[in-house]
What we know:
Shape: elongated
Distance between the termini: 18 Å
Largest sheet: none
Amino acid sequence: MNASVSRIALIGLLFLLTLAFGVWLSHAGKPYSSLLFNIHKLIALGAVIVTGVTVYQGRANVTIGSFTFTAVVATGLLFVALFVSGALLSIGQPDSAAILIVHRVAPWLVIVTAALTLYSLTISRA
Length: 126
């Protein structure tokens, strides 16, 4: 398994772990467990860092077209939306229903856009 494939597998694993801890955290109820909450945040941060490094290193060998650029921007904005919505949920914003919807839908959109980004970087090398 080469470095690119193993890094993409690591990204997938980190996404799954983030999702699993997020579901566990939501089922544990409020007030949030500090341990679960911090594990969830740290794994999510790790996923963002590994994804960012992978995309940054992958772009060095390819010409980034408009599709890839759009996918990168969309993935970045969705990551920001996840971190902001997670922070707002953790402090108990009064209008948390809309924020909760964003925080539940955005992970699936991040998976799609990150996969499209990595795929477009991979096929651009070939």
